[in-house]
Amino acid sequence: MKLLPPLILLLLIVSSSHATSPIQQGQSSEQVITALGKPIGTIELREKTLLLYPQGEITLKEGRVVEIDLMDAEQFAADQAQLKLERAEWLADQARRRAAQTKEGEAIRAQKIASRAFNALPAKDKVSYWRSFQTRYAEVDVSEQLAAAYASYESELEALRNQQRIAELEARVAQAEKEAAAARLETEALRQETERQKSSQYYGLRHYTTPVINN
């Protein structure tokens, strides 16, 4: 049995389905829905209601058909076939674009992995780069690179925290030594002042003796 081409088969299906469901003026909305199915949308105007279908629209007034703007079966089938073709072309183009972008991303990833200059960057910069890369090249897996960058970043942060703690400890030791030196100077100054006061107690004093009176 010879199969019909898809386009001809689609034309026959659509033509047969619409040939048995003509819409005429004066029909009710229920008759329209029975013939064409539920509309894909409706627009409520002041005195009219528009029933929207893929093949056109039906205008109702007081629940009755007053205007018919529908493509016939042949036009509708051709239109749908054209839309289907355009969509297939668009999908193919998107697939080509994704493939090209993936290839570009893989090349850039390999280049960065092999780059000494890039590997010498701080871990924070590498984390930022791979996150931006992941957003731009979603199809390219850089989870391993991100994990390594995050691990290096945590190590760098820990080293910085240790350096900060050492710096704070050294600062406290320096401050303690400064305070101890100040205390020694103050003690020495107090000792000298005490010695000075002791030596000045006898400065300028006259020594008197009880006079002896000879009778």
Quickly describe the structure.
By secondary structure, this protein is of the alpha+beta class. The chain has 6 helices and 4 strands.
Defining traits:
single chain, 215 residues, alpha+beta, four-stranded antiparallel beta sheet, 4 strands
Calculate Rg over CA atoms. Answer: 48 Å
Percent helix, as a range, is: 55-70%
Average residue pLDDT? 81
Low-confidence stretches: 6-21
Q: What is the beta-strand fraction?
A: 5-15%
Number of helices: 6
Mind summarizing the main beta sheet?
A: 4 strands, antiparallel
Question: Overall 3D geometry?
Answer: elongated
The total count of strands amounts to 4
* C-alpha end-to-end distance: 176 Å
* Helix/sheet category: alpha+beta
Q: Helix and strand succession?
A: HHEEEEHHHH
Give the strand line-up of the largest sheet.
Answer: 1-2-3-4
